[in-house]
Amino acid sequence: MNASISFREVIPKNLGSVEWIEVNINTGTQITLQDIKTFEKSGGYCFKSVGNVQTRNRFIYWRTYQDVLELSDVSLDVSLLRNHLRLRFTDSAVLNVSLTEEAHQINLLVVTVSSVHRFVFPIKSDGDEPGIGDGLQPQSIFCDVNDKAINPMTFCVDGFGTSPNNLPHVAASFVSHIEDECFAYFAVAYPTKLMLHVMNCATGNTTSQEVKESHLMPRFLSNLKGALIGRTEAQEAAVSMAFSQIDDEIYLLVLYRSNELRLWSVDTVQPISSINCTAQAVMASQGPQNNVIRKIDEETFCIFISLDIGAQFIGVSIVPNPGDANGRATLLLQHTVPAPKMDMADFDATSSHIWVLWSNAEGDFNVSAYFLCADESIRWVSAALEPPPDRYCLQIEQGVDPREAYCSFIFHPGRFDRNVIAKALYMFRRVNMQFDVKQLSMAMLKEQVCQAVEEEIQNELKEIVVSDEEYTEIATRLWDRFYSGCEQYHVKFSEPTGLAVLPSMDAVCIVRRQSFALLRPCEMLEHLMLIGEHTDASLLAPYCHNDSTAAIGFIELMKVVTHLEKLLSEDIKMELDKKLYQQESAYDVVKRMLLETSEEGDDNNIYAMDPLLIKQMKQYMQDVPNIELAINMLLDVLSMVNEESESQLPNYSQSMRYLLPTGALFGSEYGLSVLAETVKQIAMIRFSVSRNLFILQCISFGEIGSEKESLIRNLNYLNSYFALVWIAETPISLNAPAGFEASVQRLTMAQLFDGYTRPFSSNARGLGIGQTTLLSLFLQSKGLFSALSMLLKTSPNSDAADSLSLRENLLQLVGFINQMLWPDAPNYVFPEWLFGTCHHIIIQDYVRILSRWCKRKSHSRRFMLAVSLLDSGEPHKAVFLFEEAASGVLHEPFLFEHVLKHTPLYSRLQGLDEMDQTTEDRMQATVHYYLKVIQLFVQHSALDYIIQLANMAMNMLLPNDPQLPMFQSIIFNNHLQLGHYEEAYHALVHNADTSRRKDCLRQLVIELFQNKGLDMLIEFPYVGLQDEFENIVESRARSISIEHNEVYNFLYAFHVNKGNMRKAATVMYEQAMRLQVDNDSPNALQKRCSALLVCINCIHLVDQRYRWIAKPAIGDERVPMDQDPEDQVNGQQVVVLELEDIQRELLLAEALREFTSHRDDAVSYDQAGAEELSHLLATSGLYTAALKLSRGYDFSVLPIFECLTAACIMATEDKTTDAWSWLQKNDLADLAHRNNAADMAWALLQKLVVDNELDASTLIRKSVVNRLLTLNAFIPQWLYDSYKLANSRELLQLFVKHNRLIEAADLACEMISAMLGAGSEYFDFEHSVNVKNPQLAFPINTIDLLLHCLRENSKEHIDYEMARVQLEEEVSRYIKTVKRTTEDKMKLAILQNRENRQQQQLLNR
Q1: Which is deepest, 466, 504, 574, 1008, by most CB within 10 Å?
Q2: Rounded CA gap, 211 and 220, in Å?
Q3: 1146, 1195, 1251: which is closest to 1178 by C-alpha?
Q4: Where is each Nucleoporin Nup120/160 beta-propeller domain found (predicted)?
């Protein structure tokens, strides 16, 4: 180690609240603490980490106050559980604490004013199972300690010195192993004696004896001797002691008030050697401070002696006495080191250093180290302690709420501990009300503070009305009062109480009242800026290429930089920081400060630099030798990235060697905090150096400065270090931001987040903190592992890497961390991690800070910012940033990895130079980039911007590029989702790929059908796509259930709109078919009828030659194989339907509809034929419907009339039957209303007979009469008369057939009379029997049969006899008439024949 390098304190900050394990130990003392005057003491012990990673970078620090001993087990690598132990020795002040380590345990020896104690804490080694606590967290050695774990046999109560005036004041303790036996030694010094207690560690038995010289003279003579030589009992009192073990011999080294150092043998309890520590200053008397012994090793000790002429450190060794035959040891004074004129608070020593904690009259503390080396001059090297928070940094700008400003400053991560704020809150409230700080998070504590201050403000205002300015003034004053309380308690709790060297870690621990700190070596720039001591050229020559001349100029330049730091006002520093944050050019800001000073001379301008200062700095810069070389040397030192670091990218697989099951190197909350604080300290110092150098350059170079390469380079460093300081100080929540999981899921889906280190999954113990810094969170999640992998690259040898001390590890890791944070660094570790946190405000702020000046990785940062803005709901900003970032896909590794990683292009282009990349490669990379971006926008449903991005991509592609149709399809899909149907149609029409065009058309059709945009579907021209469109719509119509299918109606409308009536008719017929086959809904028949009606209407509008349609043959409709080929379409058999076929189907459908509306069981007859259905209709009383169906299908209507006739008879004869129920089912529109249902029925029958009977036909009447006669009913007169006029002979035959003899006889008589000329107009005779008329057909067989029947029945009833007689008379009369007429006709014929012959003869003559 270089003796001239100074040290700097690092305080772990922003830690979780301390949870103490409280143990009370009853010492049996009868005195009170008021009788005892003790001082706070502290110290530490470092574990021996040889071969044990559990104890690597691990130590224990302790402090005492009155009867309380607090111990903390701290590891920089592992976060330990239950690592704070508080032992309270009841009313017994603690005098001495010592810690020693054995193979598997730690021995704690404690001496109080009334007892001695030994505690044993086991250590877990690598082979042991680690202590498991919450979340697999390792346990401390104190984890299992409690009241029951304290064995009463491990301490004994000292019976000596219980009087308040005779209490011990100094003690020492030691553990020794001799021949497999363990003993604990305790030396306790009283005002008048020295007691030695030896405890057997196995049994706990303790023996006590007084340590004193063996006197051969009486005690009074001994006192007389002391009086003669000037030594009193007070000077014989021990002031400090220490044990030593050399070759199984135990020694006790005692420093007396007389400055005599005496070596005692513990075995013989006799003095062996003594020296006077003030032999070189015999005239000096005791100084105001206590003399102290510190053990360096078993043979070497360092003693602090306070004299009135000054204090000094004396090195003493225990060496063998060559003049002693028994080989007893003796004391040898090695060296003397004068001490500075300050009060020594505590010190510790090693073989190479003396570390001292000093204090002055003002209460300020300082630490310095003395380097012991024979080859160099002895010198004191100071250490820079951390100052309290700078109140000047807390400035409230106009318009800022004081509450917001003070809360932001007070609750900034790591600025004030929770206990400090809680104490300040108690004091501010002035009430004796406390709460458990451990259960109070920072957010809750902040709420309590705000509430308390607001209550105080309201108490002052009460009911007074004040202006806004007065309210702000009162609020500022009260918040400042609360901040003052925080500041006071922070100073009090941060006061150092001691220090301890940690040899295994090569570190120094400063123990404070409520915390601890570590000393680390300063960087060279820190040493020059903070200490400024021992700045010779030999120290800095290695940094200046071993050029002593350059080193001298460099030192002089740094002196100017340091001097300017002291002279610059805080206002100027803060103004420059603010302008840098606001992205103003530092050059413009500094030049403005200089111009305002030189031109205006305004003393009130706090941001203007003093002209004398400017003149002075300019002169200093001129006095620096080799100024340009010195500036370049300083810039080289300021540079964080060099050529070697270009290749030092993190390798996580190598860093896994440092990962333990329970932690990593510097992986605990303490280690991470130390790393973060060190990075912050170095960044702030370097920022100050760069800022001051930049101001000096602007002063020296003047107007030509902007063109200086060194100034431009330093300006870049200034901005870079400002970014590092911003990262180190920016607060960030430890809790995941709102929507974090959703954001990570989106990034993972887009393959932009691999989930290697989730940023918010670190230490569970930090949950109560609420906030940390951006740098700390980065180190917790990813930064530390990345730095470790870089460390392993520089130290590939495993043993060499493990042997690095904490100082070397710390500074190297800090260097690697700074390289990862450096904006111009080649790696993307920090930006990529920050991108994965999804803290969009911080991401946007980070990119904004770097955007103006940092050109490297600019495209990647734009991409990250765009993703952040998109996730924040600002796609309109993100889309332009994505466009700007597109050109960096092949140039920046971040975009190359995340965009092309899973594409074939990645493996082909990986490792290629930009010169080897072809235009096609760039085009493909651009395509993949925009597809990745579009995928992000799809996840956010930002459809408008997807169209915009697709257009951007298309503008960069050639017209024949094969990827062009893909983007055209993307545009179409997003227009479709947005409801821009016209734009979507135009997009699909212009798509270069035919298959994609058809797919897009299908999507458009489906979307418009779902959104009822049928009018637009009809209006589109479908140039070149009409057939495809029709096929798509037809397929959709056939794929959708017919129950709610509107597609057929649309197709009909489309074809009608195009004027294609045959296709329209085909569509409606297909709909009717599907309604018949696939639908069972109640209104299906109605729809079917409507469809058939529309179909018929369309066919009527077609030319006569084309009034037909074709349908596929189904089932029984299939025709033989020798069918006409014209009736096959695409190899499928079809049936040709003409208009009449469709009309018949309509009749059947209407009949079925009518039947269904009146029958509940109509479903079972839906497959019935037309004839069967007509019969079913007739049996259901639907006679008019049945007749209509029969007429359409040309089958007999006689059964219908027979059924109707029977119904009429039933209505007439059975009065209980409600004939109106079936009458209303028929068409009665043309019938006059009758009150009697039977009359109405007969009227219906009459109408139907008249309407349906064909001319010259009596089939219906015959059927009706036959049914009437069968049912033995009378024939209505209208039917009787009508039948006589149509076919009386047939009527007569029916009468005879049905044995209606009387009626038949009457009809026969009337008929014969009509034949003879009496009433022939009432019969179907065209003429009567006459000489001039042709012969009439006489129903002789029927009348003969009638006469026979009458003759047979005349015996039983006279009516038949009378009818027979009358009929026979009429027949006889008819026969006579016919004979006479026949004779007359014959005569007339002869006469006419004679006349004709005569005329012929005359003609022949």
Answers
A1: 1008
A2: 19
A3: 1195
A4: 58-526
